[in-house]
Specification:
Length: 134
């Protein structure tokens, strides 16, 4: 027969471990982490109009958790452009997508690019991109 103190010690040791395992299992869909911007290129296509080729990295897991957007942000925080990503890129990482027709106000010399994912929202690595002078 196992003594009461051994049973209590067993419960005290195993319960926190089990609770931790359950938390990890429940957080499985969050394992992909946040979406990161890893590269970008800006090309002027007209007077004050730009095209952005943006490379996003995210461990897409499927339709419930994938990088679903990237934004082009002015230095003052205004969103100048948004590219919606309509499907996961599970087997294509990192991936590059373009956004055309972005109006950049006169005098803006750089933008920040950020990505969003369906679970974490914003929060991954952003990229400050200097706009080339023609």
């Amino acid at each position: 027969m196992i003594s009461t103190s051994i049973k209590q010690s067993y419960r005290m040791g195993i319960l926190p471990v089990l609770a931790g395992l359950m938390a990890l299992i429940g957080a499985g869909s969050a394992a992909a982490g946040e979406a990161d911007i890893v590269d970008a290129k800006a090309t002027r296509t007209g007077e004050g109009v730009w095209r952005f080729d943006v490379t996003v990295s995210h461990a897409d897991e499927g339709w419930e958790h994938y990088a679903d957007r990237f934004d082009i942000i002015a230095p003052d925080g205004i969103v100048l452009g948004e590219r919606i990503l309509l499907h996961p890129h599970v087997t294509e990482q990192p991936f590059t997508r373009s956004l055309t027709g972005v109006q950049i106000p006169e005098g803006v010399t750089f933008v920040e690019i950020r990505a969003n994912d369906k679970v974490h929202g914003l929060g991954g690595k952003t990229l400050k991109l200097d706009l080339p002078h023609d």
